[in-house]
Write a sequence for this structure.
């Protein structure tokens, strides 16, 4: 089944927001803060610019509430009295000529009364400067299971470790952008590059002070998102809407790459501390996990990212007792936000590095430590969710080892690494990823999807779920076609437009195929049932008969459509207070194996081979599924080895593709993708979520492989050549000899 | 460079785009990318970074693969340009587009026009590329969605089909 919008994409006909031009359209620009924290004293406008030609918008022009409505509504749309991070928007400009606009942005200067900023997790938790709330803490969680105090005494080993992950830029190739128009009768319409039309809809209602039916949000073809267009589009759409309201003209606001990288969200930097009680034979008895993320200046989605990181912190292992303490803290940097994996890649990096560390302390192999601690059906996770699926992680591990030729390579590398400047290593990571919203989240979302059939027997899927590369359009049409027993070509999907499609929830959290797909399946069954019940169709109908039946039904009744609303499965219970229960309706499971070469001349790490084996329930569309995995692995290789955000006073200073390096086609290993299929009762045809899973495992597998190659343990990513150089140099100084002569561990 | 300053006046530039002669009135230092997209309405050529790193704005200029964000329009004077819209202007384009569809080489689609032009350029020079040639030939075109594997497959498939013909 070819991608629904595929032909438009390969011919260049697909319409992205920047491809759209409206008559009389102005361009918008944003004047931003250049300090991390301070009070705004004065805005000055250079006389050289003809300011009367420009539309100017400040916080005073906001008709509704000056906030980006999301969870806590603490982030202003435009700063008015104080700024809390560099690149915070203060003033908006619009003009018909983009070149004039650029000059004008530079002709505005802002005076501040500087305030002491906070730039790290450590500074923030010290609380000597309070920049948010009463304690710089957006959110904290505590998960407790079993009697932890007892196990400290029983333990043969206490293994401690501290791990860090850096910020990561989503780096979708299409920058954030929107076009807004306003007229008093219809209100505000926004076309944009975005993941969640109804998030933008909600934010614009609050900002513009307009009712539901006076806001329309349309998703254009979206050139990559990865979470980076989950919450941020509410900001840029708000800005364009304000300019459109003030000017009465269409306003296009498109960021260039430097602005997008400096001003928009990134993956939360993290710090994880593990203290684990382990028995003599390498069994985890219990542990304390402290997981802290840097949320940036405003709360935005940090509480939710923290939640996922918290629940995934124990990984695919059985913890008889555990205490997971986590928090999201404030710093004076642009808010960190949604990014594929959503907190899990951070806490799982720490855990999977720590497992190798435990193995070393106990004196068993990385394979064996995992084998002895894997969760089994009937056991419970850290939140005491019972594993009901028939998952056999040992079998998954065995298959991954076989596919990667692990044992033979491990032995060969150990031998070959005794000489030469190129050392080879192999590393593994085992992990899981919960599909859909956490705990009671799906119940609150209460998603609705629709299907409408035409008199010609063609069926249209109505959902707010957005296509941004993952294959939403294709998979949802495929599910509907299969459920209706009609050809894939006879099903289409509506462009997400809040005046046309119901709210099927945001396109996030690996929920589209599993949750929305299941609803599409139910709605399709509804259409089929209607035709069967009215006697227009018999059980074993053909495509032609379906078409005739639709035609007859519509002649008689006017329209044929069917809606399905989310119903929580009876066995999903969740306690939001104690953070206990069924965190996710389903988990995807995986074992990844990375093979690396560490070049001791250049200090570069190359990934030579990558095996990605996962259990994601039924694979609905093998080509799309494989594409999700290869793309996620590539992004995670970047997270591990290339992509470093360099901060200076809370601002990203390498905000260009020239100096923020993502993997090219020449950098990546063969990414070999394999699936196991167990099936799952909650998703359409037994599908589980897939999109975020591949982001979780590669980084720890790679850093484990680096340790296997050179015997040096790295606890922080990204791991760039300069980091290797520093670590190896200081190690060789400590040992008063050259590390180059040592055999690998 | 400031294209709207009085020192640089608009001038007439002629070239061939997808086989058709075109004439535009533009500032000499205006980016070819903007002229293609705004003046000629050829929006299949995309902007990703504006500094020649990502390759989304790739076009063929006299058969050479260039980043149109780095080419001042004056430099394109009297050249022949092929963009993604010039499907019929190039025999390779169609087989590549089909292979991209079949193999999953396009996800979000924003890098796809540039990627396909880079592949056309590669296959013209190297009709039967080894994997290493493909990796090298596409290294100037960034894709954040696919991890490139399915793009390699697509290019290999298109090359084989063409050689088989």
């Amino acid at each position: 089944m070819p991608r629904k919008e595929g032909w438009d994409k390969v011919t260049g006909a697909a319409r992205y927001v920047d491809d759209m031009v409206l008559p009389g359209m102005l361009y918008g620009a944003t004047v931003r803060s250049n300090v991390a924290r301070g009070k705004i004293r004065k805005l000055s406008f250079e006389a050289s610019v003809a300011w009367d030609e420009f539309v100017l918008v400040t916080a005073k022009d906001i008709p509704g509430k000056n906030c980006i409505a999301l969870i806590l509504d603490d982030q202003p749309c435009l700063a008015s009295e104080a700024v809390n991070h560099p690149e915070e928007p203060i003033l908006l400009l619009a003009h018909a000529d983009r070149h004039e606009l650029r000059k004008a942005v530079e002709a505005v200067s802002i005076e501040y009364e500087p305030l002491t900023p906070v730039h790290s997790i450590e500074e923030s938790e010290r609380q000597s400067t309070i920049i948010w709330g009463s304690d710089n803490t957006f959110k904290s969680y505590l998960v407790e299971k079993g009697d932890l105090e007892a196990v400290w005494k029983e333990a043969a080993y206490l293994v401690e470790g501290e791990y860090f992950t850096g910020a990561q830029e989503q780096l979708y190739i299409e920058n954030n952008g929107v076009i807004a128009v306003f007229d008093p009768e219809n209100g505000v319409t926004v076309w944009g590059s975005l993941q969640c039309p109804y998030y933008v809809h909600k934010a614009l209602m609050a900002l513009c002070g307009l009712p539901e039916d006076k806001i329309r949000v349309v998703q254009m073809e979206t050139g990559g998102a990865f979470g980076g267009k989950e919450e941020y589009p509410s900001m840029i759409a708000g800005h364009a809407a304000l300019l459109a309201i003030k000017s009465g003209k269409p306003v296009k606001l498109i960021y260039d790459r430097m602005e997008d990288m400096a001003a928009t969200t990134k993956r939360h930097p993290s710090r994880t501390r593990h203290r684990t009680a382990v028995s003599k034979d390498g069994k985890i008895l219990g542990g304390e996990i402290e997981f802290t993320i840097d949320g940036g200046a405003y709360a935005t989605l940090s509480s939710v990212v923290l939640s996922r990181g918290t629940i995934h912190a124990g990984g695919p292992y059985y913890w008889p007792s555990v205490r997971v303490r986590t928090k999201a803290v404030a710093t004076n940097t642009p808010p960190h936000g949604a990014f594929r994996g959503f907190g899990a890649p951070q806490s799982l990096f720490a855990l999977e590095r720590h497992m190798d560390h435990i193995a070393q302390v106990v004196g068993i192999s990385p394979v064996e430590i995992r084998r002895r601690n894997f969760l089994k059906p009937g056991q419970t996770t850290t939140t005491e969710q019972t594993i009901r699926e028939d998952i056999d992680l040992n079998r998954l591990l065995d298959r991954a080892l076989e596919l990667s030729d692990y044992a033979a390579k491990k032995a060969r590398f150990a031998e070959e690494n005794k000489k030469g400047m190129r050392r080879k290593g192999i590393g593994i990571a085992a992990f899981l990823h919960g599909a859909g919203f956490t705990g009671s989240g799906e119940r609150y979302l209460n998603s609705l999807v629709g299907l409408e059939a035409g008199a010609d027997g063609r069926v249209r899927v109505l959902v707010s779920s957005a296509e941004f590369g993952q294959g939403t359009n294709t998979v949802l049409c495929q599910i509907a076609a299969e459920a209706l027993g009609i050809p894939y070509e006879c099903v289409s999907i509506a462009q997400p437009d809040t005046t046309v499609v119901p709210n099927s929830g945001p396109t996030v959290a690996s929920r589209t195929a599993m949750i929305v797909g299941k609803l599409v399946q139910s709605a399709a069954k509804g259409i089929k049932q209607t035709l069967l019940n009215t006697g227009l169709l018999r059980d074993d109908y053909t495509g032609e008969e379906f078409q005739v039946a639709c035609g007859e039904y519509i002649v008689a009744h006017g329209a044929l459509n069917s809606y399905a609303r989310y119903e929580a499965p009876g066995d999903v219970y969740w306690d939001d207070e104690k953070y206990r229960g069924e965190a996710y309706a389903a988990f995807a499971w995986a074992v990844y194996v990375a093979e690396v070469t560490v070049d001791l001349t250049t200090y570069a790490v190359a990934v030579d081979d990558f095996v990605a084996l996962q259990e994601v329930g039924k694979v609905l569309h093998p080509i799309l599924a494989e594409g999700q995995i290869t793309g996620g692995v590539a992004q995670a290789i970047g997270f591990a080895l290339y992509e470093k955000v360099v901060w200076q006073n809370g601002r990203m200073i390498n905000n260009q593709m020239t100096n923020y390096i993502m993997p090219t086609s020449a950098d990546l290993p063969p990414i070999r993708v394999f699936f196991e299929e167990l099936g799952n009762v909650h998703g359409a045809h037994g599908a589980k979520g897939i999109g975020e899973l591949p982001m979780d495992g590669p980084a720890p597998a790679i850093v484990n492989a680096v340790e296997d190659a050179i015997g040096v343990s790295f606890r922080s990513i990204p791991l760039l050549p300069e980091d290797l150089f520093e670590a190896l140099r200081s190690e060789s100084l400590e040992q008063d000899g050259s590390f180059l002569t040592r055999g690998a561990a | 460079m400031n294209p709207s300053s009085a020192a640089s006046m608009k001038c007439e530039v002629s070239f061939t785009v997808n086989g058709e002669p075109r004439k535009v009135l533009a500032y000499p230092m205006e980016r070819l990318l903007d002229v293609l997209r705004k003046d000629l309405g050829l929006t299949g050529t995309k902007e990703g970074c504006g500094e020649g790193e990502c390759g989304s704005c790739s076009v063929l200029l006299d058969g050479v693969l260039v980043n149109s964000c780095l080419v001042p329009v004056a430099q394109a004077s009297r050249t022949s340009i092929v963009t993604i819209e010039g499907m019929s202007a190039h025999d390779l384009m169609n087989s590549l587009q089909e292979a991209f569809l079949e193999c999953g080489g396009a996800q979000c689609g924003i890098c796809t026009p540039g990627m396909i032009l880079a592949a056309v350029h590669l296959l013209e020079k190297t009709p039967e590329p080894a994997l290493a040639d493909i990796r090298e030939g596409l290294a100037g075109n960034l894709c954040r969605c696919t991890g490139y594997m399915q793009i390699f497959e697509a290019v290999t498939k298109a090359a084989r089909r063409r050689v088989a013909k």
